[in-house]
Design a protein that fits this description.
This protein has an 8-stranded mixed beta sheet with strand order 1-8-7-6-5-2-3-4, sandwiched between helices. The longest helix has 21 residues. The protein has 363 residues and is an alpha/beta fold.
């Protein structure tokens, strides 16, 4: 268990699972098309393929909607590579939820029937009715999942999600400026703050003060992933199940939403990589504490800095860091195996997957 650390000492002890289910929520926000916000897509035109390609990769180890596995030209792969390896190694079942993906993946998936999120600089992100539908569908799914599993792990794939998380956190009174993480080593905080400032300026000052519910904050400034993940978590928790929000700083917005809705947070965890928790340019623990002091953060050391593959070493150098539930899936693989799978064993398996999926494929 040395590869897992927790903000609460009892969290690792209390955290045990025999029958976990991994859920990946794929989504989209047009806010991601703003140049310089994210590396989750080589350009704005390719951005819409990031989430469906991640989902297809989790199932097949290859992609249908694009010809190659999502990776930068110099071989930095999607974090879905880590997630797929962890799920396969520990035999953890997978479900994909479409919550506003712009391109639909060629795999079996559950649809929440919501549209992609709009660019928050220009207009409201979502209709309030869509926010409520996403949350309600999530709750229904979460209650069903809690019947069949002792732990639901919810990951996400949405380019630009930390910027919309920053906007929602600010709208509900949490000052998240300079605290959200980034897929790049040089965190573009100034650009993110500028985008959010522009979105807030779009909404008049008196209207901002009238934002009374988290659903209204999401509708104005968020994205479809947030109410969908919050709904799934709410449904599981209401059925006395356990939930791990597998992701980085955007999951603090989900915690804040659940807290404002008055949901009990007993049984809620955040699971991520040490590349997020040790990131000097963001503050996941600070954001989560501002939302709720009762949600433990677990993080996993994947030893990718020790990898022989430069594309994997990049995770330890500040690129990508997290996504597609990579940290949470890894934590659950280790805990389900009761020590048979370690961070280093996982790293070796990730390297093999990298050789098959990235190195052997034509670019």
């Amino acid at each position: 268990m040395l590869d897992i650390t927790a903000s609460d000492r009892l969290a690792v002890k209390n955290f045990a699972t025999k029958t976990p289910v991994f859920v990946c929520v794929i989504s989209y926000t047009a806010t991601s098309e703003i140049s310089g916000l994210t590396v989750a897509g080589a350009n704005a035109e390719l951005m819409k393929y990031t989430s469906p390609a991640d989902a297809e990769f989790l199932y097949h180890g290859r992609c249908s909607c694009i010809k190659v596995v999502p990776a930068t030209p110099d071989g930095k792969p999607t974090p879905a590579l880590i997630t797929r390896t962890a799920l396969q190694l520990a035999r953890i079942p997978l479900l994909v939820v479409d919550a506003g993906a712009k391109v639909k993946p060629s795999i079996p998936y559950i649809s929440f029937g919501v549209e992609p999120g709009r660019n928050i600089i220009n207009e409201n992100a979502m209709d309030i009715s869509s926010v409520k539908r996403a949350f309600e569908h999530g709750e229904l799914l979460g209650k069903q999942l809690a019947i069949m599993s002792d732990l639901i792990v919810v990951g996400e794939s949405i380019p630009g999600g930390t910027t919309t998380a920053l906007a929602v956190l600010r709208a509900i009174g949490i000052d998240a400026r300079f605290k959200v993480s980034s897929s790049m080593p040089e965190n573009p905080h100034n650009l993110k703050n500028k985008v959010v400032d522009s979105a807030i300026e779009r909404v008049t000052a008196d209207r901002i003060e009238r934002i009374s519910s988290p659903f209204e904050a999401i509708s104005t400034f968020g994205d479809p992933m947030m109410p969908s993940v919050a709904g799934i978590a709410s449904g599981v928790l209401s059925a006395s199940g356990k939930v791990m929000l597998a992701g980085g700083t955007q999951m603090s917005a989900v915690v804040a939403i659940l807290k404002l809705l008055g949901r009990s947070l007993n049984g809620l965890y955040i699971g991520t990589t040490t590349y997020v928790t040790k990131d000097p340019s963001s503050d996941l623990s600070g954001l989560v504490r501002m939302a709720s002091k009762r949600v433990p953060i677990l993080s996993c050391d994947l030893h990718l800095g020790e990898s022989s593959k430069p594309g994997l070493q990049a995770f330890a150098k500040g690129f990508v860091k997290e996504g597609v539930g990579a940290g949470g899936a890894s934590i659950v693989a280790i805990t389900k195996s009761r020590g048979k799978i370690t961070g280093k064993k996982l790293m070796n398996a990730i390297e093999k997957e990298y050789e098959i999926s990235i190195e052997s494929m034509p670019h």
